[in-house]
Hints:
Blueprint: H1 10-62, H2 68-81, E1 88-92, E2 97-102, H3 107-117
Antiparallel strand pairs: 1-2
Amino acid sequence: MAGKPSKKTDGEKSLKNVQSELGKAKAALRIERQLTKRANAEIAEAHETQNATSEILRVIAQSPTDVQPVLDVIAENARRLCEGVLASVYRTDGQMVYEVASTDLSEEWLETARRWIGMLPCPHEPF
């Protein structure tokens, strides 16, 4: 008979239900994998930060009277944690800004930068 919807058998209804549940399970599995991946990335990042902190504390303990090795390791860990090409650490005396440590830069570039940066007035707003 034309125009009359065909009745689905119990087997067809059951197959549709199984397919629907399978689709839901696949979606839940994708979400679970994404959450696991994100959690693993956050754990790895926290571990990197903890390692950097441990390294800085170790250098502080080894160099109680010399601040330069500490500043150098801070710059290197900042560069690595931020996935940067280079990093610099600056200090201010309230009047001027000075570069005190940096990574992966030639001595010639460092001397030029120190001359220029050492001439920069300290901003009135804290940075």
